Amino acid sequence: MTDRRAILSWCFYDWANSAYPTVITTFIFGTYFTQAVAETPELGTASLGRALAIAAVVVAMISPILGSIADREGARKPWLAVFTVACILATAMLWFVKPANEWALWALVFISVSSVAFEFGMVFYNTMLPELAPTAMIGRVSGWGWGLGYVGGLLCLVVALFGFVETESPWFGIAKAEAANVRATVLLVAVWFLIFAVPLFLFAPDRPSKRIAVATAIRDGFETLVHTARKARNFAGIVRFLVARMFYADGLVTLFSFGGIYAAGTFGMSLAEVIQFGIGLNVTAGLGAMAFAGLDDRIGAKRVIVISLVALIFFSSAILAVESKALFWALGLGLGIFVGPVQAASRSMMARLSPEDMHAEMFGLYAFSGKATAFLGPLALGWATVQFDSQRAGMATIVVLLGLGLVLVLGVREPAH
Q: What is the value of pTM for the model shown?
């Protein structure tokens, strides 16, 4: 029997945590850092790219081990709680980053720590999907989660815009001196994440803990991971899918991390305009995720991924070619329609490919595939931006990554469902 309250509470965690990538790494704090904290926008872009690259390497190295530990220990929610709280606390520490270059290192440290905690939490969150949703509904539930995530990110941006950034009287009497109203948005994200994550911990079921000592779980988890790696030939389809996802996930992460920065630097958008664009992007992405959710269960996750990647490559290429801000808006909103579906379908594809007794381990490898090459995207973007003194040249690396992912995913065979 389907537990609708459990599924809804699981989906609302997407609503809760989506405020972090939307407000922090994409549209507000990332732009604030490059425009007001870093010495120059170009150097800020490069240093932020390096920080996110370091975080990605840490996630890639440790996530597979965490997944193996979770399969050995059983319970997922205690681990998810630890990393959720860590992400919230590190995000709140960004409040202290004033608009001066002396705060750049502090900002880079805590944005890296919060990013790592966020991604570690996703390992345990994603692995709950195939255990909550019936097989015939995995695509829909994954899509509903992503759709709610975009709605949550959208509403958090709206609150940030009208409550703190684009107003003469910021909420709670916060002054505009030293950009306090902009910095307050990180506290908004921390509170938002905390409040809306609660339903999952109250209502979503969890596997019983096997009460294995932490040291034993770590040792056994590492040994299990090594054993799985030795039998990689038995999981050829999963390996090919994960390699494909390494490339297109890297492209998407880089796109989200630097989209707002690109809009501000290349098209001269103000911070308020960047937030408004982010709101529009979240609307189209949420609509896309919801619209494609049912299609995933009907035609398969692979076809949804392929359709979405082709569209993303087209829109990304067009965006790099235009000079008009109006065309950038139109193409960017069109691109957003296909961002949600490729992410939601990737999660449901992994759930269907994973053996039943290895969900957490496989989602640990899934997190690895999202980060193993993630240092290449930000580093390549940062290098190209500085080398050619052009953010447009840096963003062109995204199209290459999406294309490589598309070519590889075409060879993956999706199991019948």
A: 0.79
Residue 91 falls inside a structural domain: yes
DSSP string, 131-193: HHS-GGGHHHHHHHHHHHHHHHHHHHHHHHIIIIIS-SS-GGG---GGGHHHHHHHHHHHHHH
State the total domains in the chain: 1
Range of the domain at 280: 4-204+215-409
Can you tell me whether residue 208 is helix, strand or coil?
Answer: coil
Let me know: does 16 contact 155? Beta carbons within 8 Å: no
Predicted confidence (pLDDT) per residue in 110-140, tens digit: 999 999 999 999 888 988 888 887 777 888 8
Domain membership of residue 87 (yes or no) is: yes
Q: Tell me if 87 sits within 8 A of 114, measured CB to CB.
A: yes
Sort residue 91 into left (φ over 0), alpha (ψ -120 to 50) or beta. Answer: alpha
State the pLDDT at residue 95: 94
Note the helical H segments in 3-76: 4-17, 19, 29-32, 41-73
Count, in order, helices (H) and strands (E) of the chain: 17, 0
Distance CA 304, CA 308 (A): 6
CB atoms within 10 A of CB 306: 17
Name residues whose C-beta falls within 8 Å of residue 309's C-beta, 6 or more positions apart in sequence.
248, 338, 342, 402, 405, 406, 409
Establish if 414 belongs to a structural domain: no
What CATH number is given to the structural domain containing 376?
1.20.1250.20
pLDDT digits (tens, 9 = 90+) for 13-25: 999 999 998 888 8
Within a domain: residue 260?
yes
